[in-house]
Amino acid sequence: MQVREGMSDTVLTIGPSHTLRDAAEAMCRRNVGAAVVLDPDAQGPSVITERDILQAVGSGEDPDRELVSNHVTSNLTLASPDWSLERAAATMVRGRFRHLVVYEGGELAGILSMRDIMRCWIEDGATSEVTAGATEA
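RE: above sequence
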């Protein structure tokens, strides 16, 4: 299975000068865990995630004043729609992130989350034996 089969091609985008509250409200409305931040002054896209917002608010930042631009991840690994889901999952695990921005031909094509990958694998009938100890934390 390829990234194109699992990605969402409707991507929430937000500007860097929006507040954290703006981002959180937009993400809630769309029921997504990340937004792609498009800044014409930056070299490429960045991402803000629910975790970024949680960490900012949890450390005392004011979500009505704090800007998205101060909490983005900008050094992104970009995926191609023709990557396998296994490659995408391995990239996410190695990079310790849960969302991949997908570009094709220099254009934003979609976004893929770990949840999207799991959904695809489950719908495709992926099964695995749970070994003893696998459920232990």
